Input
Amino acid sequence: MAMLPSALQPEAAPVTPDDAGEAPEALPPGLRDIVPIEEVPLDQWREVFDTLGWPAGLSRERFDHAALGNQLDEGQLPGGFVLLLQALHELGVDDGVDVLLEHAADLGIDTGAWPTELGPRGFVVDVWLRGRGEPKVAQAIQLARLTLFERAAPPSPREFAARECRPWELAATTEGRLQRLLVPLFERLHYGADLTVSARIDDDFVWFRIVRGGHIQTPRVWEKGRRRTLRYRPAQCDVVRYEPSTGRLLVPTRSSTLLAEYPRVFGEVMFEDAGFFSDHRVCTLKPVQDLLATAFVQEEYDGIIDRVDMVECLWHRPDGSRVRLSGRDCFGQITDLRLPITEGVLVEAKLHIHFTGRRDGRATVSVRVPGRIHCHQPEHREWVNRYLERVGIRLRAAQPSPMQDVWGLVDFVYPAPTWRQAHPRRYEEFIQRRVLVPRALVGAAGADGGVPAPLRRELIDGGEHIVAVGDDPGTPSRVVAVAPGGLALDRGALARMMAEALGFRGDREETLMRGCFDLGTIDLGAATVRGFVLLAGATFAAAELDGLIQQCCGEGERPVLLLPEGRDVETGLPTAQGNLLDVQRCEWLPAIVDALRLGASVPAIFRARQEHVLVLDVGREKFWALGQPIELPEREWNFVLTVLRAKRDSVAVGTKTLKERISRRAKGPDDSNARKAKSAVRERIQEALGERAAELPEDLFPLIQQGGGYDVAVCFLLQEPITPGVRRP
Output
């Protein structure tokens, strides 16, 4: 097993400014390379020795790279210098700069003034010097070195699941539009504005090739007996793939910023929807957790896959403890130890898939819920992916089909695999909440005795006989076949789950009319709204429905009727349409607000949709991030308000104006007040969101170099008051 670098061992003490008085250090042999030293400007080395103390053999007046190289050979260096060289060798590359910036953003450090034009080596030395007086910067350096050590193995592409499997046609404007969206992103990451984009459709896949720059490099080269410095920006290539048949977007990058931004950009370019690839859940270990070992070899794979072994797994128990198993047969261990594996969550597993009759007859697959599947043998990847999809480990995006329409499901019974395939992300919840209940699978028997797609069923003679009746009145009744394993939709349970998801209160669950349910009430600002949902096609007069709903409403309650997407009824009531089988609060509440024309009379959070990461209600002086309320003092509130207004109105706010708007008591010519306010906003958001803060980009409010203003990197909603609100004192 590889050892951690010495500075990353647990007993290593943090670097502090007091190290300057320590005894000189002897330089390890691995750090005597002169090339990284020469890629750092002399002025920076002078600043280093001014901080740590000058060695006996060097002076500020007579100092160059050659003299520093001689000092390296002699090995007498001031205390703390070895730690600097270790950071220089490990982080002074493109990946090191990226990781260092990522950890700095996570810790809430403002990196706007960090000099990336010095190249990776000079950048690391500058940041290291900053870390002498700022403990957070020193912590970012240590975390970055540890991250690079953990990432020694090449990464597999990260996958993002689409909302649905949707085909896509290449347009003439695609490449230009993609380039326009990527240029500001790469400029913010200091990759430069020069890039080329190409797109093509091949082998049923959509391929995007993005050739871009990296961080500026300043290597030392030997030419004609002399050494000189080259300054260039290396070319890098990102190949992104979209699979229309599965709804997966594959992004091959280690950068956490690009992992967050690429799905948003490609969703916007391809489908006019920045959240189209927002789902990180591409796999589940539920089939493994159910210990359905016999289901691991399906008939479809007879003669191809011999057997499947689980050799490692990590199980999170309900009490919060973790159990890790490893061995040739983890299934056997679970059985022998009588572990209640169906409780809790299985989060990691390593599978050995054995192929029949092949020399290279084994593929190793590592699965980590919710979004990592890595096949260690690329030559087997195609068969492995097919197999994992077949057994339900790899999830598929929802297929557009009649099974997404509630009105088309209420009278039918379908096999369990059909339900799982149509609703892979909600299937387990539907089973647990009894939205899907067991029913006999009924269908009209075909000529070959098989059971085709189910017809509508009716019970006669007290339920003793079942007769299949076609939708066409001219189709006679036919003999039916009954098979176990079917599931049917329970409309009442679905209505209760919807009411809970949307925040409606009340226990009125009875059916008003066929398929119409009273969800209860919800307060949207000063308005009390009573919701009703229609889960079956109306077989009654609209006036009858309207009258019954009005009778159920109390004094001051405003009714709204929820309908499936693409369905409508003739009614005089306000109606909202949406997905009733995958209820999202951030999609339904804005639709209800629009249907009732409540507008800005309700708090802004009720109008926010999924793409609105930040929400600011000026009149009520409320701020939300990812739907979580955040308390902001005056300075931070004024900073956020000023930046969002400037972005909304497409105007530039200079440093002086920004400083005045942040605080009337602000002093000094620079934008230190703005930088401090930005850092404080980041810290408050991280404290409120906890682990969910990782869903946000590295820098919510990136600095605009021209003009000294600030931008906002995410989609937001800014709601101004209809009448002037109360101003903060």
Observations:
- The longest strand covers residues 305-316.
- The first helix runs from residue 34 to 38.
- The mean pLDDT is 76.
- The chain has 20 helices and 26 strands.
